Amino acid sequence: xxxxxxxxxxxxxxxxxxxxxxxxxxxxxxxxxxxxxxxxxxxxxxxxxxxxxxxxxxxxxxxxxxxxxxxxxxxxxxxxxxxxxxxxxxxxxxxxxxxxxxxxxxxxxxxxxxxxxxxxxxxxxxxxxxxxxxxxxxxxxxxxxxxxxxxxxxxxxxxxxxxxxxxxxxxxxxxxxxxxxxxxxxxxxxxxxxxxxxxxxxxxxxxxxxxxxxxxxxxxxxxxxxxxxxxxxxxxxx
Length: 238
Known about the structure:
This protein is of the alpha/beta class. It has helices at about 30-35, 75-85, 95-100, 140-150, 190-210, 235, and strands spanning about 20, 40-45, 60, 85-90, 105-110, 110, 135, 155-160, 215-220. It has 6 helices and 9 strands, in the order βαββαβαβββαβαβα.
């Protein structure tokens, strides 16, 4: 496999705080000007917000199949990598030349791929050693959390994880993300499944962060998932 070695990143940022950036609608309320000098992890189509802010994530995680989406311009991927210190990709993309030849790119194996039922997810669906795999269950932010903890970040603050997804038709804008063209439509059943899965993923993260002595909080400027301890983002950044 091409790319850099994940082992070199173990505890690289020990004791630094990081913001885990979700893609919910409340992200448009985030004070990005105050996040510019902070460490932050973003995922998937975060580049869609770049026209509204000078902020860029220091770390980027891509653990989904959205890379293969026919409407995903490569300019989005390039824009994120250009501003990030380190970018992390599912290793099935390791042979893509544009990724493998770019500095600061790392590839990780995936654990728990597929549509696992939320009620079947186990508390140990978390990876302490990302060189052996990263759990893909639940959401991309869940994968980013595992990577952030491996890199030594503590505490973690989650924003943009609104906690509820609603169905929308094929000709309607996406109400579940910060950009109306972020994603395709979804059925009522799928959205209920997603909501339960997101909540379970955050519960697993909370359990394992507590085990590892890592503080993790929900600083989302929306009700959120109701799983992590809630804090006010304005107070965290003050």
